[in-house]
Write a structure and sequence with these properties.
Strand order of the largest sheet of chain C: 1-2
Shape of chain C: globular
Largest sheet of chain A: none
Low-confidence stretches of chain A: 23-36, 314-318
Helix content of chain C: over 70%
Distance between the termini of chain C: 6 Å
Chains: A mainly alpha, B alpha/beta, C mainly alpha
Structural class of chain C: mainly alpha
Shape of chain A: elongated
Number of strands of chain A: 0
Structural class of chain A: mainly alpha
Mean pLDDT of chain A: 79
Oligomer: heterotrimer
Radius of gyration of chain C: 24 Å
Chain lengths: 318, 346, 322
Amino acid sequence: MHFVAWGVYAVITLAAWRALGHLAAPHDMVPRAPRNPWSDVFGRLWEQRDGRVAIQVLVALIVLAALAPWLAPYSPIAQPDIVALHNLPPSLAHPFGTDFASRDVLSRVMYGARVSLPVALLAVAVSTTVGTLYGAVAGYAGGRTDAIMMRIIDAALAIPRLLLLIAILVLWGTVGAGALILLLGLTGWFGVSRLVRAEVLALRDRDMVVAARALGARNAAIIRRHVLPNVLSPVIVAATLGVANVILIEAGLSYLGIGVRPPAASWGNIIQDGADQIATLWWVSLFPGAAIIITVAAFNVVGDRLRDALDPRQLDGS
Amino acid sequence: MTAPLLAVRDLHTWFHTSAGIARAVDGVSFDVQPHETVGVVGESGCGKSVTSLSILRLIQRPGRIEPGSHIEFDGVDLLALDERAMRAIRGARISMIFQEPMTSLNPVFTVGDQVAEVVRVHSNASRREAMDRAVAMLGQVGVPAPAERAREYPHQLSGGLRQRVMIAMALVMSPSLLIADEPTTALDVTIQAQILELLAELRAKMGMSILLITHDMGVVAESCSRVLVMYAGEILEEAPVTTLFAAAHHPYTEGLLAAMPRMGHARERLAVIPGSVPPPTRWPQGCRFHDRCPYAWERCATEHPPLYQIGDGHVSRCHLADEPERRVQRVAGGKPERTAAGEAAR
Amino acid sequence: MARFLARRLAQGVVIVWLVATATFLLLHLAPGDPVAASLDNPLTPPDVRAHWRHVYGLDRPLGEQYVRYLAGVAHGDFGFSVPHRESVAAVLADAVPNTLLLMGAALLAAFAVGMATGVAQSRRRGALDRGLGFFTLLVYSVPEFWLALMMMLVFAYRLRLFPVTGMFDPVMHPYFGFWGRLGDVAWHLVLPATTLALLGAAVVARFQRAAMLDVAHQDFIRTARAKGVPERGIVLRHQWRNALLPVITLFGLALPALLGGAVFVEKIFAWPGMGLLTVDAIGTRDYPLVTGSVIVGSALVVAGSLLADLLYAAADPRIREG
C-alpha cells in the first residue's frame, strides 16, 4: 500500500511541476522568447526566505517519512516492556517518551508522517480533480445548468465538513485507508469547483477565447490551450493550502477514533493516546501536535508564496 | 511681473526601487502665476503626474523628493513644512483632482459626506454647516438637485457627475491653486467639454490658478494660457499657448502636434513619433529625445541641452536653438528634406 | 432590501432542503438499516425487528419515506434517539443554545482581536508585522483539539486558573444567585472560547491585514490624503471601512469550520453542546442524532451566512439594490 501511495505522490509532484511550466507560459497571446518556466516560478518561491525555509522543511519531512524504517530508533508498534517501560517522560533513550503501551513516541511520530502525508496528498489529488472537472463544466455550460450545479455546491459548503465526515463514518463503520482517502477527497472539492468555475466564466468571455472561437477552434482545444493554464494557477494554490487543511482534518478524525486506527500510527491518534491523561502524559500529545503544526505551517507558507509567485501582476517594492 | 503663486525650482523626484533609481522628475522648474491656467502636456510616463503629486508632497515610498528641490507656494517653502502644516494646505489652499472619478471616490460614503469631510477637516464647522456648504458647492459645480444627490453614493452617479463631485470636493474651501491631473481623460467627449467649461468658469469666479495636466493637445488648446511640454522627467518646451501651436520649436512638440488628427486635412496615415520612451532608470546621456528625433546629430547624443530662450516666455530644450540650420531631416542615403511634421506645424 | 432578504431566505431554504436530501441518502445508502444499530442485539427476534421497522416506516417505498422524512425535518422532527431515550429534537434543543453561546463568544473575541491585529500589522510593516504574521501562521496551523488539550494542560491543570471541564460547577451551580450562575458559566466559558477564538483570530488577522494592504493602494485613499485628511481619519474612515468588507464575507465562510472546531473543543472541555453530543453519538451509533446534527449544523451555517450577507449589505452600499 505504501509503495503505491509514494508512487502516486511522485507522479503528482512531477505533473504539478510540469503544469507550473505551462502556467508561466503566456497568459496573453503575445509570443515571448522561450525561457525555462519552471525556474521562473521556483525562483520567485526560493527568493523569499520563508518560502525557502518552508520548502526545505517539507523536503526534510518527506525524506524523514520515506526513510523512517531506517531512521526510527525503535519499531512504532513494538511494546517491549509494557510494565516497566510504559509512560516514561522524555529522556535520552526516548526523546519523546513512551506511551501507555511502552511504545516509543518518537518512532511513532516518524511513522505517523508516513500515514498523514500521503493520505493528505492523495485526498487533495482527488478533490482537486473532481472539483476542477465540476467547476469547468459548470463554468463553460453557463445558464441553468450552471445555476443548478452551483446551488448544489452552496448546500455542500454549508455542511460543516467535520460533521459530515463524522456522520458518514458513523453510518458506514470502519473504513480502510483507501476509502478514508476517497472520503476526505470527496468532501473537499466544493471550494475548488467554485474557484475553477469563476476562472472559466471570466475566461470564456475574454477576448482571446472569443477570438479563438471566431477562428474556428474546437471547444476542447480552447479549453486545453487557453482556459486550463489560467485556471491551474488558483487551483495549485488551493491544492497546497488544501493539503494543510486535510492534514488537520485527518488528524482530527484519527483523534476521534474514526480515521486511521491503531496500532497504525497517525499523528492524530497518537495525540489521542495521551489525551485522556493529558496532565501526566503530556509528552504523548505534545510532540505529534508539534509535528502537525510544523508540517501544516510549511504547506501554508508554500501555498501563500505560490499564490504570490503565480500572480501575473508583479508587485515590486511594496 | 507679480510674484508667482507657485514656484518650482529644480524638482527631482526619484523612485529608489530594487531595479534601480527611476528619475521620474529630473530637474523641473516652472512658475504658476495667480489667475492663470498652465497646461502640462506629455505622453504617459513623462513625469507630469509625479510632478503634481510632488507639489502636494503625496509621493510615497519608494519615491522621494530629492534634496536640492525647491517648491514655494505663496511665499511658503512647501518642502520645509511639517506634515501637519502640509495637511492644512492640502485641500484648502492647494487642491487636486484626479483622472478616474469612480475609483477616486470612496464607495461606502455618500458624495455629500465626502465633500463635507473637506470642510470639517479644515474648519470648525459642525456637521450640519459642513453639509450645507457641501450642498451649496455641489450646486455651484452644476450638480442638479444637489441636496438629494448629496445623499447618493458614487456608484449611483454618472462619470460626469462624479467628476463634478471631485471638483466640488477640491474647491469647497476656495483654494488658490487647483491641480487637475487628467480630469477629462476618462470621460466622453461631450462631458469633457462641459467639465472644461466648468473649470474655466470657476477659475474666473473664484480667482484661482489651475495647473492642468493632460496628454491631449486639444484640451490644452482650449483651456490653457501657457503650456509646458514634458518628456522623460524634464521640461522640453515652455511657451504661451498661441505661440506653441503656431510656432513650436522643439521637435517633440512638433511631433505631438502632428500626431493630432485634424478635420479637413486629408491624410493617409496618422503621423507617429517612432520609438518609445526610454526607461526612467536609464535616461540617455545627452538629449533624452535624440533617439526619436528626426533632426538629431552627434551633439545631441552626448551633450544634454539646456533650456534655450527662443522668444518672449518661450524656451526650448533643443540644440536646434543654437544651430537652427540643422533643422533638416536625416533620410538614409537620400537628400535631406524638411520634415512633413515640421511643415504641418508651421 | 426586502427583496434581497426574501431571496436569500428562499435560497437558504433550498440549501437546507438539499442537505436534508443528502442526509436521507446517506442514511439509506449506509450498510445495514437505520434501525439495526439500535437493535444491535443479535438475539432480537425477527418479528420485533419487523415491528420496529414498521414503526419507523422502513417497509414503505423509498419515495414515501423521503417525503415523510422531509416533512419531519420541516417540523423539526429528526427522529428518536435511543441512547438518550428522547426525541432528537429535544436532545438538540437542550444542546444547541450552549453551542451558540460558545461560538458566539468565540466569534466576538476572534473578530475583535483579529481585526485589531490585522490593522496593527498593516500599519507598521516592520518587525511587529513579521512577528505577528509568524505567530498567526503558527496558530492557524494548529489542530483545534491539540490546542484545546494544551490549553487545558497549562491553564487548568498546571496553573489552575480555570476549571478543567464542564459548563458550570456540578455541585454549587444551583445554589448560586443569578449573577453567581452567570459568573460560573462565564468562568467555565473562558478556556473553550479562547481556544476557538485564537484560531479564529489568526484567520481574521490574516484576512484583515491583506484587505487593509489592498485598500491602501486604492485611488480614493490618495484623494483623501489630497484633501488633507489626517492619518487617523484615513486609516479608520477610509481604509478600514473598506477593508471591513472582505472580513464580513469571511464571517459567513468561516462558520462551517468554526462549527467543526467546536466539536473538538466541546468534547475535550465537556461543554454540553451539539458537538459533544455528536462525538458521543459516534460511540453509541446513534444515527438519528448524527444526521439531525448535520442538518441543524447546516441550518445554523445558513442562518449565519444570511446574517453575514445582511451585514455586508449594510456596509457596502453598492450591494443594496437587490
